[in-house]
Amino acid sequence: MLKVEGNLTDITKNQLKFCFQNRRAQGGGPVDDIKIAADKKSAVIVFKETTAVDFILSKGNTVSHSGALLQLKPYYTKTKLTDAKYRYTDEAAVGPDLRNAQDRRKLKAENIAVESQNKNQRKKEKDEAYNFNTNQKEFPPTAKKVEKGNYPKDVLRSAKIDLHLDEEESDLSPCNCTVKIRLGSIKESIDVYIFYLEDPAVNTGEFIEDSLMLDGINKVVYVTFCSPHEARDFCELPHTESDMDILNVEMATEEDFRTYPNYIFLRGKLNGADELADFIHENFHLEILDILHEDDSDSYIVIFDPETCTDITPLTWELTSLSGNKMITAPVTIQNCVLLYGLTTSISSQTLQRYLENKRRSGGGKVKSLERMSDEQAIICFEDEVDLDVLLSKDHKIENSELSLRRYFPCLSENYMNKDDFENEMTKAEHTPSRSIHKEKNPGHHSKMNTTYSRLLKEDCVQQEKECNKLFLSGKSYGKTVSCGDISKLKTKKKTFQLKEEVSLERFEIILLEKCKFFDQINDRHKEINLNLDYNANKVILNGDDKRQLEDIHRGSLSKCRQDVDFCKLDNMTADQIKFLKKDNVQKKVDSMLDNCYMQCNEIDVKLYYLKSESLNIKDAEKIIRSQAEVHTKPMNQDMLNMLQSSDGSRFMSSLIDDNSSLSTIIKLDSQSKTLSIIASGDQLYQVVQEIETYLKTNKLHKVEIHLSEGKHRFLKKFLMDDFSTFKSSIGNDALIEFSSDKCVIKGVKDVVERCEGFIKNILAKIVGNNVTLKFFGIKEFLHDSEGKTLIKSIEEEHRCIILFKSEVNKTSKPKVAVKTPTLIAKCSINGVNISFFQGNILELNVDVLVNPLDPSQQFVSAMSKELIQLGGQNIKKDFMRSCTSSSVGSVTETSSGSLSNINRILHLVCPVYCDDQKVKELESTVRACLHYAANKNYSSISLPAVGLGKILKFSLTSVCKNMVNVVKDFIETGRNSFREIYFCDMKAASIRTMMESFENKFNDIQFETETMLADKRDFKFNSQSPHKSLSKKGWDFKSIKVNVALGEINKQDTDIIVITVDKSLELTKGRLSKIILDEAGDRIQEELRNKYNNGIKAGDFAMSSGGNLPCQHIFYACLSRNRGDNGQMEDLVYKLLEQAIKLQATSISIPALGTGNLCYSSDNSAQVIIETIEKFASRNSSSDLKVNIVVLPKDQEIAKKITPKK
């Protein structure tokens, strides 16, 4: 119950009922009764649904109605006055102050009981109104049809009024009270229509001003009256006023209410969605979730946040003018439409429709219409019951073609509105907004509420008629009713019967006879008999006045059950299938699918009951039952079993069998037979199997191996098994840990495996070893005999240690470390600091301090760290464990170098792991912190690997080299460092080459002294100048554009933009150069191209992306046709590239010799065309300040010398 407080003087009961049963506005559902206090300051509203009050209060505790502000709060009562009026007292409203849930549940049960008593009292009072009063000689006109001529005219008039009121109360739904006014044109403001509705010539009653809604697409104005007869009377009047341009007036239908409450359609001349969003936010302060836009450039759908906008009715008037532009506004109809693309000519429309209607495969359903827009696209509209969320969540594929789907709104299509009508509407007079927006909170999903809204109100409207014309069976009736004729005969049933007969039957017999309409037939033949079904006592209760008739029905029912009821058992049903069929939701579903028969599940079998007299196909009925309990057995391997038995797998399996899940299923995992059994209905079985397979595919077991020495293995088993067992019990089945003589294998969920790995490594790190040499005569023989073994055992127990002999230790020899002596490749000097580049093992260099990069786990898992421990010994790691004070990224820990005599100290640097571009900057800060630390310690020489490179830290080679060069440059130029020697060393030639090129690009006057060639024998010679300056004299100035010819590779150029050639598909893995660019720039550039250029590009055009991990800001991807002797296409393309560079405000661009290779352009011709096009561009763009590098491969150095401009 809901209590309404405020000034109710001008508000009628019908107005309150309409307001609070309308879910689209402030209401919560069907209203059962309304009581208004005598002082007109409060009212109590009783709803038919217990959740209605919570639904209303979730939107707010106030509502404005007819100019009055009403306060809302829940109403609780335990007492009722003798006249069936609800007592108004604040002492009864104790609900919010209850201290615990138990009291609230108790009070709720008492309120429900009181509401039931009040409802019975009201029903009794209504029934008493049907009794004929012989003293007054009157019969209430609502109890019996009034026949003309039997009563005076004044009685007939009062009967008409009373009948009208009953009709009004039983038909108060929006669609029955709403009028649809069709107009020739929308040219007036809302006030004009309000004044017209209030005109005495056409006014038929009260209407709700706030209900006026404008539909500019269909040229309709909706208005809701306070009663259905007032709305119908308004429709029957002639509306011939020329100034209103009214074409037709008719009643609204339920389809007119199938609109989104927070979606609005707008059409007009705008500068884009941003202008629209800014205008709405500034003028209405409404939050916008999204603005949809299709191929019609003038049409938009604005989606508001349902928390701030639950009804767009006032906005249909207020948004008719937007920043001086005339707009067409309309509500958005709910339509289940999607746009599908990715089709091919081989996929016919019939095949597509069959696939979409196959719910098991596509998740779709019945197709209402399918329109093929082209060979690749189609628009599909589904029936209302199809859930588009399920359809869009699936991956779709037909004949190896990947299909893509998205929601589609027909009103946004280009041809939805006639262009001429649109232009005419835009020239009409401006609407004058005159309504404010009511901000209310929507507690649920608007679409779901909107679709069920009309149905609920319709059910409420016809409820009174059902009570008058139907007799509901007592007990559980499965929604069935027994007709008892007209109202006069119903009145006869209400009297007290003299005789009562009870027929005892089995429960299944009652249900079966009811499903076969046996009891309906009895009521049709014996209308004077009252028949009720009591499922609790398993009885049929007969009431009447004729004993013989009752006995005949009794005998007939028993005879029907004994002679006509039969059953059959379903064979080969497993215990799990029977258990599944016994579930309430499954049994109800099966029962709804079976006609004229009933399924009963016992503990051991399933029986199908039916009437032999009915024409029933038993095989079809059995097929229906079996289809709802199909079994699928999936073989499993051990890894799959372990995955599903883990805690995450158990949660996943529980979600599938949860009663609240949309899936109804039973799943059993058998570890012995290694099988997974799934029981579900046929329409859900495929979905369950797919979800399990997807889970197993995406959640494979992770495996890690940790190598152990014999001594650590024995120590762990002997002294640390208690700690290990405690830890193992904490992880449960999430990981499996197995030990062998030389390693530990961990398999399980990735996060748990990583946790186990860290735990075991921490334990192993605490176990230390020490070599002891005993030089006593006969000591070896003594320790091997029984007395010596006893001594060793006692020492081990007393000191918690393991004693091994050298022969035992040597059984597990360490893996050999391949040591490659470093080779000096080149060196240079910058501001007095010597920089050397070595290829080989960095651990062999003589240096003051060595930098060892670590990942945040600090587990020494990289190849360099492992080799460092193997060559330098475990003391390095022990020293690190003692000295480490922080595990954060950028922290530096200094340790000894162990047995590495050529290295004085080691700096262990914790580095970030690459995941995005922000980590690149973080890596640069980390390297800078390391050099600061070393400089503060006054070390004179330092050796650096490629910090961040490798499988552990995952940074690209280009970003690593760029970061290190930037840091070194800053240190050298500031002069605040102690370094005299800086060594860069790596095993791979590519790393050294890229590092040297980065130095050349950063330091303009650097000169390398090349000592030897790199080990991979590539043609790589460093000159005294950088590659792009090796021909620095080969350059020209075209007005403000500077052009240089540079020898080198395009991916090494340090300019704002680089250009490469690609094919039409923009797949970078197809070309040699594009693949190199993809490897160095990262996968992000390929994703950008797929998102921006889904269908590729044409020959003579170009695409654009960011630079990724490369030093450039942008990459241009040029596409050329094969050379046919005409250079026009290349000239146009180069001109476009230069124009785009100017638009991006770039200062430099590098262009290679385009089209060489498979496109058959010669290098000299391509370069010559490029420079001539640059010259032409410069003559037309004299203010452009751009530096252009024409990049030629080193092997084409002679060709580069021949390149000359025309002038």
In short:
The protein has 41 helices and 49 strands. It is α+β, with helices and mostly antiparallel strands.
Describe this structure in words.
The structure is a single chain. By secondary structure, the protein is an alpha+beta fold. The protein has 9 domains: 73 residues, RRM (RNA recognition motif) domain (Alpha-Beta Plaits), CATH 3.30.70.330; 84 residues, 2-Layer Sandwich (Alpha-Beta Plaits); 77 residues, Alpha-Beta Plaits; 85 residues, Alpha-Beta Plaits, CATH 3.30.70; 69 residues; 130 residues, no CATH class; 104 residues, no CATH class; 194 residues, Leucine Aminopeptidase, subunit E, domain 1, CATH 3.40.220.10; and more. It contains 41 helices and 49 strands. Strands 38-39-37-40-41-36-35-42 form an 8-stranded mixed β-sheet, sandwiched between helices. The protein has a 7-stranded mixed β-sheet with strand order 43-44-49-48-45-47-46, with helices on both faces. A 5-stranded antiparallel β-sheet has the order 2-3-1-5-4. A hairpin with a 2-residue loop joins strand 13 and strand 14. The longest helix is centred in the N-terminal third of the chain and has 28 residues. It starts with a strand and ends in a 5-residue tail after the last helix. About 15% of the residues have low confidence.
